[in-house]
Specification:
It contains no helices and 10 strands. The chain has one domain: Sandwich (Jelly Rolls). It is an all-beta fold and about 130 residues long. Strands 1, 2, 3, 5, 6, 7 and 8 form a 7-stranded antiparallel beta sheet that branches. The chain has a 3-stranded antiparallel beta sheet with strand order 4-9-10, with no helix packed on it.
């Protein structure tokens, strides 16, 4: 058994999203977080996880998730799996439980900014501050 108490969690936030991350340890290939989305994350473009799958359960509230230009409306009680390399963004006012496997790392989380002529990849963490 492995327990991660709230006082050992790390909190990251920006204007639209607050993430409380619970890291298990380097030996385990899974982690979890509570995400409070209040607006759009990321604020523009999309994000991808290069290596990890992201399983999200909507605890409360609702909004939408856009994955590869396909929009789905989510409400409390809904669950979604985002595969590695899928471009996505969240929009709405909701609290999510998120678990990633393998464990989420900032180096594999990229913001994708699309322009009419090119696409740019930026490495940033979950709170959009790099």
């Amino acid at each position: 058994m492995k327990v991660i108490h709230k006082h050992n969690a790390s909190v990251k936030e920006d204007d639209a999203c607050t993430i409380t991350e619970y890291k298990i340890d380097e030996q385990h290939a899974i982690d979890c977080a509570i995400a409070k989305v209040n607006g759009r994350y990321p604020s523009s473009g999309s994000v991808i996880n290069e290596h990890c799958k992201e399983l999200a359960y909507v605890f409360e509230g609702g909004g939408k998730l856009v994955v590869e230009h396909k929009e789905v409306v989510l409400n409390a009680g809904d669950c979604v799996l985002i595969e590695p390399q899928e471009k996505y963004y969240w929009s709405g006012h909701m609290t999510l439980f998120i678990s990633c496997t393998p464990e989420w790392h900032v180096e594999q989380h990229k913001i994708v900014i699309s322009s009419p002529n090119k696409k740019q990849f930026n490495s940033e963490n979950r709170n959009g501050k790099g």
